[in-house]
Design goal:
InterPro entries: DUF6163 (IPR046161). The chain has 141 residues and is an all-alpha fold. It is built from five helices and no strands. The protein starts with 9 loop residues before the first helix and ends with a helix.
């Protein structure tokens, strides 16, 4: 007699693999954005917002916070752990809040906020898909 420990179907395995793949792709993007913010803080390039000492106070707070949070979210998503998604949502909320609430101070470039929103919606769809399929199968029976 065999005891089946994991009752996984190919669909569930595919959903899990796609979720991990998405998390890892987003983790690489978050690492890249984290490096971008560290380059800004260290002052590799000359410019008004490209060195910490020449930034306004609002940019100093946001840039230093995101420089720390982006790599943490990237590590959490690479592993794929639930706290990584939580930190990622926090980072996305900070980015979107800066651009949408204070466009005079942070500009109106919505590309990074749109990336976060699109990837979060895709991850939510991947997480919700098995639940929807299970409910549909229950209704058919």
């Amino acid at each position: 007699m065999t005891i089946e420990i994991f009752n996984r179907t190919k669909e569930a395995s595919l959903d899990k693999r796609l979720g991990v793949l998405l998390c890892r792709i987003v983790a690489l993007a978050l690492f890249t954005l984290g490096v971008f913010y560290w380059v800004r803080l260290v002052g590799v390039y000359d410019g008004p917002l490209w060195r910490f000492d020449t930034m306004p106070l609002s940019w100093r707070i946001v840039a230093s916070s995101l420089a720390v949070l982006y790599p943490i979210a990237g590590v959490g998503l690479w592993m794929p752990s639930s706290w990584g998604v939580v930190v990622w949502v926090l980072v996305a909320a900070i980015e979107a809040g800066c651009v949408l609430a204070l466009p005079a101070a942070f500009g109106t470039d919505l590309s990074i906020a749109a990336f976060h929103a699109g990837a979060l919606v895709l991850l939510l769809a991947l997480k919700a898909w098995p639940i929807v399929v299970r409910r549909i199968r229950r209704l058919k029976v």
